[in-house]
Amino acid sequence: MKVTILGSGTILSDIKRNPSGYVLEHDNKSALLDCGPGILHQLDKLKMNVCDLDCLFISHFHLDHCSDVFALLMRRYLSDPVSNETFKIFGPTGLNEWYMKIAGTQGAWLNDRQPKMIEFSSQVIYWHELEISVCRNGHTENSISYLLKDGNKKFFYSSDTDFNTDIIAFAAYSDIAVLECSYPDENPKPGHLTPSKLAKIVDLAAIKKTIVTHIYPENDTKDLIQRIKTLSMSDIEIGFDFMQIDLEG
């Protein structure tokens, strides 16, 4: 499995960091993990055809993670009018309600050819032999973190989260984790991680390699990696747009 970071930033980030989005590639298939503003342009830069995407996984309904979902569906429709009929969107509880409220404003182009909505509860799903499960992380009432297993390898995506013992157990012994680190320790905000909270999760979960993303400008300083590494001796890197992460099962 290969993961490409499309957006390592936030809604306040400058052009070097797009808001959240990731491409998952496995077994010659591709999917999106979150789809924030600007993700279609990021896909264009990779010369990826949106109609080649199998499905989309959404972590929660804050706009910096899902605002381009309906733009994605419209581009697919205009490129191939039947393409959305085979497209699947996975997400947390409330996905169907969220989708229908917006779809009701769009008309026949979408409502006559709708993708399939699948809400995660406690089930495990499989995407081309990848095992995918989720854990509620408390960022919102229904927001979720993702765990993908490729053979004996584990990839964890926190999405937005605060320090949470549930995700420590869920992410335990992951080979690679993409963790948010929104704010500095001097200015923490509820629902998000800081360097000290991130370091604690990494060490308690015994994560082998961590990529830091979802970085707000006030935390996006040259000394960010040093601030984190004074708190943890683990293998940690600062993520960036179009960074590629390989996970070999």
- What count of structural domains? 1
Number of helices: 8
Roughly how many Å is the radius of gyration? Answer: 17 Å
Return residue spans where pLDDT drops below 50 for at least 5 consecutive residues. none
The profile of the biggest β sheet is: 7 strands, mixed
Shape: globular
The termini sit apart by 8 Å
pLDDT averaged over residues: 97
Write down how many β-strands occur, each being a DSSP E stretch of 2 or more residues.
Answer: 14
Strand order of the largest sheet: 6-5-4-3-2-1-14
Helix % is: 10-25%
CATH architecture: 4-Layer Sandwich
CATH homologous superfamily - what is it? Ribonuclease Z/Hydroxyacylglutathione hydrolase-like
CATH topology: Metallo-beta-lactamase, Chain A
How would you summarize this macromolecular structure in one to three sentences?
The strands form two sheets. The protein has a seven-stranded mixed β-sheet with strand order 6-5-4-3-2-1-14. With 249 residues, it is of the alpha/beta class.
Walkthrough of the structure:
This protein has one domain (2-246): Ribonuclease Z/Hydroxyacylglutathione hydrolase-like (Metallo-beta-lactamase, Chain A), CATH 3.60.15. 24% of the residues lie in helices and 29% in strands. The chain contains 8 helices and 14 strands. The strands form 2 sheets. A 7-stranded mixed beta sheet has the order 6-5-4-3-2-1-14. The longest helix has 11 residues, at 69-79. The chain starts with a strand and ends with a strand.
